[in-house]
Amino acid sequence: FQIRVASTLFPPLFLHFPSMLRTRFGTASTVRALSSAAHRPAEELWLPFTPNRWFNKQDEPRVAVRGHGMYFYDARNRPILDASAGLWCSAGGISPKPVVQAVQKQLETMTYAPAFMVSHEPAQKWAEAIVAEGKLAERGLNKVFFTMCGSTSVDTAVKMALAYHRSRGQGQRTMFIGREKAYHGVGLAGISVGGIGNNRAAFASALMPRGGPMRA
Fold first, then answer.
1. Same domain, 10 and 83
2. Of the candidates 61, 66, 93, 87, the residue with the CA atom closest to the CA atom of residue 7
3. pLDDT tens, the chain, 216 aa long
4. Residue span of the structural domain in which 177 resides
5. Helix (H) or strand (E) holding 71
6. Residue 163 maps to a domain
7. How many domains does the chain have?
8. Which of 30, 74, 129, 195 sits CB 3.0–4.6 Å from 180 for a disulfide?
């Protein structure tokens, strides 16, 4: 029995130690070449935080074809343990039935609606629920702004903070303080206020001029 572990928590570590990408339990097994080209990764696909040339040359690349609970499964039905809940966002598991049913119902009703000059019922309901359940109004927080992911959330929050102080006549307040080794996403604003050295070095010329990590 073999379980391969997939974790995205520390991608730079895995770049240097490929053997850590796979953990086996039970009987030993040898590396087997995939028998079908359909099981190979698509060279046209550019994977983030992944050494793509190395990945595409692997005898057993991790290519998921389905998922359920805590596991992804490859074309040979071998389990891959999702050790970090995807990108730390699928704590409820992979393809839980209530989520699948809710998504199917929504797709049958309306696949997409913009938020520019148009509102829609699902967003309104979730905004109301978040404010009510979180008891945010009593803390002066009565607005919800939806984004696509953590990186866009941080970039949006940075712009909101700048716009807020500018509207109060304090446009000179532009300094953001972050923590050393802190991760705030892969957008330029998130990298600017974050403390991941490699990310900051790679895009140093494009980062916000005032901001950066500090030690506690």
1. yes
2. 87
3. 455 555 544 444 333 333 334 433 333 333 334 344 446 778 889 999 899 999 999 888 889 999 999 999 999 999 999 999 998 888 899 999 999 999 999 999 999 999 999 999 999 999 999 999 888 888 888 999 999 999 999 999 999 999 999 999 999 999 898 888 999 999 999 999 999 989 889 999 998 876 667 776
4. 147-214
5. strand 71-73
6. yes
7. 2
8. 195
